[in-house]
UniProtKB/TrEMBL annotation, chain A:
Protein name in UniProt: RsbT co-antagonist protein RsbR
UniProt KW keywords: Phosphoprotein
InterPro entries reported in the protein's UniProt record: Bact_StressResp_Reg (IPR051932), RsbRD_N_dom (IPR025751), STAS_dom (IPR002645), STAS_dom_sf (IPR036513)
Pfam family, one: RsbRD_N
STAS domain span: 157-268
Regions annotated as coiled coil: none
Automatic annotation (TrEMBL), chain B:
InterPro entries per UniProt: Bact_StressResp_Reg, STAS_dom, STAS_dom_sf
SUPFAM superfamilies named in the record: SpoIIaa-like
Domain STAS: 2-113
Organism classification: Bacteria, Bacillati, Actinomycetota, Actinomycetes, Micromonosporales
Protein name: RsbT antagonist protein RsbS
Pfam families (alphabetical): STAS (PF01740)
From TrEMBL, chain C:
Alphabetical list of SMART domains matching this protein: HATPase_c
Gene Ontology molecular function: any one: kinase activity
Record InterPro entries: HATPase_C_sf, HATPase_dom
Highest taxon above the source species: Bacteria
Domain Histidine kinase/HSP90-like ATPase: 40-139
Keywords, ordered alphabetically: Kinase, Transferase
Kinase among keywords: yes
This protein's record includes keyword Transferase: yes
Family annotation (SUPFAM superfamilies): ATPase domain of HSP90 chaperone/DNA topoisomerase II/histidine kinase
Record-linked Pfam families: HATPase_c
UniProt-recorded name of the protein: Serine/threonine-protein kinase RsbT
Length: 285, 138, 139
């Protein structure tokens, strides 16, 4: 409990008695902190909603933001923070929208009166609670945004493309961590099944470095593909990576490796289209 | 006890495993298949494991044994339809299924068996030296 | 299969026959799906459970399994305890070596199952039976 029912009642009175003045001043002090990135009309509408909701909650006898009477107010604050987080406002800018109300209230009270001061401290406690709640909603929104983006990045960065009838390729670009390598490899194997392609080319031209774990993932994928009845060719191994592979003592065994994606494709086509290749060869000879 | 049905399609026996097999069912299949190969004189066996959501070492061993038995009885075995998750798990488990030929689906499996039979026939009159390997695929 | 597993209470299953091994697989699968393990992780866990359940039956002379969901605050997971009162394992290091077998299998049961899970704990002694606990966490 952060304030008494009587204090809550007086807060409702104060807010509704000076409704226009409160919202006008509140908007005024917040709009400066947002440096024009939100229109004054929009901000005023938000704060008016908040104002109305606070009055309703306080009239209902709210003594703590976590009360049942605070449900609507909490929902409103959560919505406000979500909006701010998505629009790219900082956490401070978001919290200030709530804290600015303190100054407004202070301006309305007769500060010479000890009772009024005690009331102000109680109101402040409630506003602090609201501010913290805003902050937490803001963080939650940002966290889910980051998680979404990480997932989208994973989707974006791992295309499996059909290169030819019966040949699919994964051009890997960027740093491969263990989690991403796993996702890519699972997707590659699934694509083999979906398209019925017996050949896959894993192109690592765009991969700056390979550590033991990632190399192991690639190797395991090749073996898994074989178990499923498909062949993998690894292409685009850069000199540094070749050196790492040898230095780490990773055994590539009998896995086909080619210098470029083009070489790998030629290799596969030779495996599948022997007759055509041979005829051309004979004609030349 | 469940029994896995064995279908005959032309020169090929097709086994489509649809149930979560107990070890006994797996051993029974091994026996049934050997008998059917001899009885029908088929030269190919396709084991479709599309419906299996796991392959453990026991089933892995059964597949290897079937492949070996078939070989002795002059039939080629191809395991088809292994799911990606199953393949990844087998690699982690350390099971390599040595000596087993695999294909993505029944159709590819049929092709593989046909190619293997053609290959064997190809060693005849026109199986001349270096060309044998490259003419293997029609 | 059992619709809607009660995740709060541990699920148990006796391992006395071949068919029980199949039941263990189905039980583990249901719980793994309920805690939302990825498809690959489900497959790994069910495969490990199959290996260990067979060991319990073949080497331990039968026993029981307990499947329970766990939560470490950040992630959820499945914990499985295999328990038998068989002869126990004399040389644990040897039993955990790839390819070692006394039962005519491929010798991948214990060592392979250990690679398929995140946590693996084994308690055994000659004449004291064997208890194996494995855990797999969601990613």
């Amino acid at each position: 409990m952060v304030l008494s029912a009587e204090e809550s009642g007086r807060l409702a009175g104060l807010l509704s008695g000076h409704a226009d003045r409160v919202t006008a001043r509140w908007t005024e002090s917040v709009v400066a902190s947002l440096r024009g990135r939100l229109s004054q009309a929009e901000l005023r509408r938000q704060l008016q909603e908040l104002h109305a909701s606070m009055i309703a909650a306080a009239e209902g006898g709210l003594v703590d933001l976590d009360d049942d009477q605070g449900a609507e107010l909490r929902a409103l604050l959560a919505e406000l923070s979500r909006g701010r987080a998505r629009q790219g406002f900082s956490a401070t800018e978001t919290a200030v929208s709530v804290y600015a109300l303190k100054d407004v209230l202070l301006g309305l009270l007769d500060t010479g009166d000890a009772h009024a001061l005690r009331d102000f401290v109680a109101y402040s406690r409630l506003i602090d609670q609201m501010g913290l709640f805003t902050f937490e909603s803001y963080v939650r929104t940002r966290e889910s945004l980051i998680a979404d983006q990480a997932e989208q990045l994973l989707e974006l960065s791992t295309p499996v493309v059909k290169l030819w009838e019966g040949v699919v390729a994964v051009p890997l670009v960027g740093t491969l961590d263990s989690a991403r390598a796993q996702v890519v490899m699972e997707r590659l194997l699934q694509t083999l099944v979906d398209t019925g392609s017996p050949y896959a080319i894993i192109d690592i031209t765009g991969v700056p470095a390979v550590d033991t774990q990632v190399a192991q993932h690639i190797l395991k994928t090749v073996v898994a593909a074989r178990l499923m009845g498909a062949d993998c060719i690894i292409s685009g191994i850069r000199p540094q990576i070749a050196q790492t592979i040898v230095a780490l003592g990773i055994e590539f065994g009998d896995i086909a490796t080619k210098a470029s994606l083009a070489d790998a494709l030629r290799h596969v086509l030779r495996l599948t289209g022997v007759e055509t290749a041979r005829r051309n060869h004979r004609r030349e000879a | 006890m469940d029994r896995v049905p064995i279908l005959k399609i032309g020169d090929v026996l097709l086994v489509s495993i649809q149930v979560d097999m107990s070890d006994q069912t797996a051993l029974q299949l091994q026996d049934d298949l050997a008998e059917r190969i001899v009885a029908t004189g088929c030269h190919g066996v396709i084991i479709d494991i599309t419906a299996l959501d796991i392959v453990d070492s026991f089933v892995g061993r059964m597949l290897s044994t079937i492949a070996s038995i078939s070989k002795v009885l002059d039939a080629e075995t191809v395991v088809v339809g292994m799911r990606p998750a199953v393949a990844i798990t087998l690699v982690e488990l350390g099971l390599s299924l040595n000596g087993i030929r695999t294909a993505l689906n029944v159709e590819r499996g049929m092709e593989l068996i046909a190619a293997a039979r053609y290959d064997e026939g190809g060693y005849g009159p026109d199986g001349d030296d270096a060309d044998t390997e490259t003419t293997a695929v029609p | 299969m059992t619709a809607g597993v009660d995740l709060g209470t541990p699920q148990t299953q006796a391992i006395r026959s071949d068919e029980d091994v199949v039941r263990v697989r189905q039980l583990v699968r249901t719980v793994a799906v309920a805690v939302k393990l990825s498809l690959v992780d489900q497959t790994k866990l069910v495969t490990a459970a199959s290996e260990l359940a067979r060991n319990t039956l073949v080497y331990g002379g039968g026993g029981a399994v307990e499947v329970v969901t766990v939560d470490n605050g950040r992630r959820r997971g499945v914990r499985i305890v295999f328990d038998d009162s068989g002869p126990g394992i004399a040389d644990l290091d040897l039993a955990l070596t790839d390819g070692y077998t006394t039962g005519g299998g491929l010798g991948l049961g214990l060592s392979g199952a250990r690679r398929l899970v995140d946590e693996f704990d084994i308690r055994t002694g000659v004449g004291e039976g064997t208890t194996i606990t494995v855990t797999k966490w969601s990613r």
